[in-house]
């Protein structure tokens, strides 16, 4: 296969040549560097931590250098053999180091002949195998020596990338969509390249003209603040990895960041569009929602009617069931984590009360082979009792954790207040742990018995007796409203088909036959 055919198969553009007229890189594109001899040394310049070398095929995605065994392996879009985040790395030409890289591999391998003339030395900080970080030195000798300058320029530019390099967004307090102990969420737009001039202008991707494709929500995670909380015992060290893993896997099962075909039809989650990491920040690019969550909706519009409440609960149960089938539990389902999607043409209004997306996977957990979760987390008032009762490092059943939280949401949207109450945080925690609640009059007098039955089945204290999200979806209350909605849709479709426009050859206007 020729290099041109390989690039076409992988849909990865070749890195442009360096020079004064070189076009700026599109940092939302993955670039093919090509074949190279690569030597890695761990543990600093002395190489005390060991070294490895070989022939590799390299790609560059933002500030990540990806190593593949061959062009075919890169085209297959599988997992790379290795990667290096070059954020804040030192990048320079190094002839002697490149010669050493060439000597470290078999003499017959491609690339050895030009190594002494076109070596690039990258020194970066990476995670150490035993924990913490270490300095890693990577020496790259491109097989095509004329490409070395372009590679070096691209790696230097990648090392200097920041969130501001990639996105336009406001930093000022009050301009955020949300803020946490070590996070902030911003409305943002991907930075676009200036349009090409001359004949190249005709080749501009038509998608770039789509206004909404560049808009996103940007979650900025301050790694220093996060690890300070880890050192204080207030956060689990794997929390960030779990969040990215959960959203990446769930987004892929949804059909990708754009939500295209091939995904699971039940995934009502906020999708992850990309991740970017620097020395001090982890940046998650997410779908841009309306900024209106379920708490806002209840605050402005009051409790939901029976049909709207059923539609909402059904949507959240489907989202939780989708997570469960992918092997995850959200563990923090609550009003503020149920967000209404943004509509491009109507200013962001949601289509219906049930049209919500599950957001914020910061407490998500991967279910182990025994069906257990580990780690006590959640928001008091919504936490499953088994999480409260779990001991330190003790696992608990995953099957009904999110169902209990959805029960608390369902209770709240039907009556206007939360099920568990306490005069202080301790009293609230005890009421939540013991699942002590009541259906008070007069608020619950108007709620149908089948709705109360589902709420009670979800707020069951014993997880072995509690309905799972999958089982709850078959509850009579939800089935009754789903059948009514289906009948309404069928009636609307029938009326639409029966409408005949007869302006041509008869009286203008429409008649219903």
TrEMBL record:
Pfam families named in the record: Pkinase (PF00069)
Keyword line: Kinase, Transferase
InterPro entries: Kinase-like_dom_sf (IPR011009), Prot_kinase_dom (IPR000719), Ser/Thr_kinase_AS (IPR008271)
Domain named Protein kinase: residues: 171-478
GO molecular function: ATP binding; protein kinase activity
PANTHER family: SERINE/THREONINE-PROTEIN KINASE
Protein name from the UniProt record: Kinase-like domain-containing protein
Organism: Tribonema minus
